[in-house]
Amino acid sequence: MSSSSNAADAPVVLVAGGAGYVGSHACLRLAEAGFQPVVFDDLSNGHEAFVQWGPLEVGDVRNAEQLDSAFARHRPVAVLHFAGLIEVGESMKRPGDFYDVNVGGSLQLIAAARRAGVKAMVFSSTCATYGAPAYTPMDEDHPQAPLNPYGRSKLMVEQALADLDRLSGFRSIALRYFNAAGADPLGRIGERHEPETHALPLLIEAALGRRDGFSVFGTDYDTRDGTAVRDYVHVLDLADAHVLALRRLLAGGPGGAFNLGGGVGTTVRELIETVRRVSGRDIAVAEAPRRDGDAPVLVADNRRAVAELGWRPAYDLDGIVRTAWAWHAG
Ligand SMILES: NC(=O)c1ccc[n+]([C@@H]2O[C@H](COP(=O)([O-])OP(=O)(O)OC[C@H]3O[C@@H](n4cnc5c(N)ncnc54)[C@H](O)[C@@H]3O)[C@@H](O)[C@H]2O)c1
Ligand SMILES: O=c1ccn([C@@H]2O[C@H](COP(=O)(O)OP(=O)(O)O[C@H]3O[C@H](CO)[C@@H](O)[C@H](O)[C@H]3O)[C@@H](O)[C@H]2O)c(=O)[nH]1
């Protein structure tokens, strides 16, 4: 536990998946906001070294006994739920695992929270629940028709949470992230997925010479340069939104779903150019076919989060790439 841990009377928040990329940044912001994060994570993709702002309970969200014992020991006031499998491409290869962990695990976590008398959850959802854009930027009322089992597993949990919120008094907010990227500017934590499949860390590793180059998946999309468009959002801006959502639920405010993206679309080629400029290094780029399950364009209309949560994303693409570069190069 780091020296920045909070006083003994700070309200405890159980952070499922808090040893991972987004969850660890949320712990950082929770601690700064006066909460005491307790991480519950099976370390399947997380890192013990990322757990710096409170205790770690090693456990699987599919395991009711481990969950009950963590809830009994720490008595949280709310749950932030990041735990799960995250890669779109993987979900096309092993869909059963995605339903098992993302749906089965979420239902177990919700049930354990309810047994413990906890009534508030902030859930990590995704723009992948929308599927192909009927219009862009996408607002929260855009039809949800996922293109892959990953997106569908997240949508199923959103729907269960919405029913529980409406009918049972178990309150929740689903935060639909667009593409999380960047790192803690102080370099304490950053993005480390194993294996790494995300575009920005792969580009940075190529710029650092740790990879031979970078393959662009699809150059025949109907976009301004033929490559797919994404809305990259800084991981600490996501973390800020979690604190805002948590405070809203704890204050008795309404639940619901919110898009978290900067509202700016970036093509894969534009991302490559930004990494070249920020790093001052060249990157060998090859063209490859489209990746199964990928949407052509995913850009957020973030006005609901700005108006209702008071969310103010602070980082633009340059800031995202700079903090990611510093973390990987440092
Ligand atoms: N990274 C993104 O761009 C992005 C975008 C949209 C949504 N999300 C969602 O945000 C959440 C966090 O993503 P991330 O990038 O930090 O991923 P991550 O893999 O770094 O973190 C997920 C964490 O969950 C843990 N976990 C996995 N299965 C578990 C289980 N059965 N029991 C307990 N812990 C388990 C892992 O060990 C890991 O620490 C995920 O739910 C993901 O779907 C991420
Ligand atoms: O080697 C690579 C890797 C990615 N890409 C492209 O870069 C873009 C971004 O890809 P990636 O960083 O893998 O993110 P997404 O596939 O958009 O998925 C992320 O963002 C989603 C929301 O958009 C989340 O739901 C997922 O959890 C998260 O993995 C996509 O067009 C990819 O096809 C490449 O061209 N080459």
TrEMBL record:
The chemistry this enzyme catalyses reads: UDP-alpha-D-glucose = UDP-alpha-D-galactose
Q: Which cofactor does it need?
A: NAD(+)
Indicate the segments forming the NAD-dependent epimerase/dehydratase domain, all copies: 13-261
Tell me the Gene3D superfamilies matching this sequence.
NAD(P)-binding Rossmann-like Domain, UDP-galactose 4-epimerase, domain 1
Q: What does the record give under GO molecular function?
A: UDP-glucose 4-epimerase activity
Q: Which GO terms describe its biological process?
A: galactose catabolic process via UDP-galactose, Leloir pathway
Q: Which pathway is recorded for this entry?
A: Carbohydrate metabolism; galactose metabolism
InterPro entries tied to this protein: Epimerase_deHydtase (IPR001509), NAD(P)-bd_dom_sf (IPR036291), UDP_G4E (IPR005886)
Matching entries from Pfam families are given as: Epimerase
- CDD domains for the chain: UDP_G4E_1_SDR_e (cd05247)
> What SUPFAM superfamilies does UniProt report for this protein, alphabetically?
NAD(P)-binding Rossmann-fold domains
Keywords, comma-separated and alphabetical: Carbohydrate metabolism, Isomerase, NAD
Q: What is its EC number?
A: 5.1.3.2
Q: Which family does it belong to?
A: Belongs to the NAD(P)-dependent epimerase/dehydratase family.
Subunit comment: Homodimer.
Record-given protein name: UDP-glucose 4-epimerase
What would be the name of the gene that encodes this protein?
Answer: galE
